[in-house]
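Here is my example:
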Amino acid sequence: MSVVYILRPVAALLAAAAIAAFIWAVRRGQMDDLDTPAVRILHDEDE
């Protein structure tokens, strides 16, 4: 039995899982605001 017959379905499942995780993250709003976390450290929070 060739390894290709095992690796192709495994690769397809991993790719499908990555796409599903990306779609889930987008629908949950994880990628709505990409700029604020990067500049949050620049704001002075001292009171």
Remarks:
- The radius of gyration is 20 Å.
